[in-house]
Predict the structure.
Amino acid sequence: MQKEKEEKARKAAEKKQQELKEQLAELEEQREAEELRTAFVAAQKQREAEERRATFAAAQKQREAEERRAAFAAAQKQREAEERRAAFAAAQKQREAEERRAAFAAAQKQREAEERRAAFAAAQKQREVEERRAAFAAAQKQREAEERRAAFAAAQKQREAEERRVAWQKKQDAARKVATQKAQPQTIYKTASVNRGSATYPVPAPRLIRRIDPRFFNPRLFGKIPPNEQLQADQSCRSIGGIKALGFHPRAVGLDDSVFPSYFCAFSRAELKNRRFIAETPSATSPRLERKVTYSWANQHNFRAIPNGMTRKGNHFCAKYGFRQAIKYHPRALDSDGTPIQGGGYLCR
């Protein structure tokens, strides 16, 4: 009986001990499960935090990009010059300086024209003539002939009258020559020298030709001709009897007070020395055409040696026409109107 009780007690103790073990095992499983749940919760929180940070970072980058685009769009409208810069990305990092420049954008547009005028101010004085020539360039070719005719209209009329008069005089001389030949078969006549001996003088007698041409007399008022216009200028001068164009003035004054562009022409090799007086640019003072009177002889080959004792008188005769010395003589030389010159005429130099 006692043994059965002890056996029951032992079995009860073992059962109880087994229950305790099971309870401990269950508690251990619960503790491990709790730890797993805690670790899982911690990992979950960490993952959620990482996701939130990643989401925030992505949103932050997107917001920053949007802010940069918005700032760029606002600045882009106020800075026209900045749009042309290809290196805007690098300049974007230095936006602070660009924003200050944008503050001056409105004023920049208003003073743009002023800056351009200031930039060309120094050169403006030097290219004044070129700009005026450029302004006339398109019409210059079409009116070149008209301008030359206008510039030398008075001279042309005088030249034509002179040519008609010379032609008439030639006819008169021819008629006189025929009459003289009929009256005198000899074409050579004799005249006594003042002091001694005799000389022979052919006919027809030399006749003084008086010519009036319009000329400019002050080369210092003219400016240099551009090299690309020199050929055209030379042709213009040759059309009126000159040999070379030396200078140009856009506002020359004619005999009738008309204003026109004109060249300073050289009419002989001696006048080519006037080139050194031509200025870099035309003067503000307009050159004026003046009448130049020149004298020459028709039939000057019929002059002969000056008789003894008449050289001084001949020099005095030549001085009246602007020459220095008498070199030949003809006793029946004619004046420009066809009348005999009292005391004869002299060939001068």
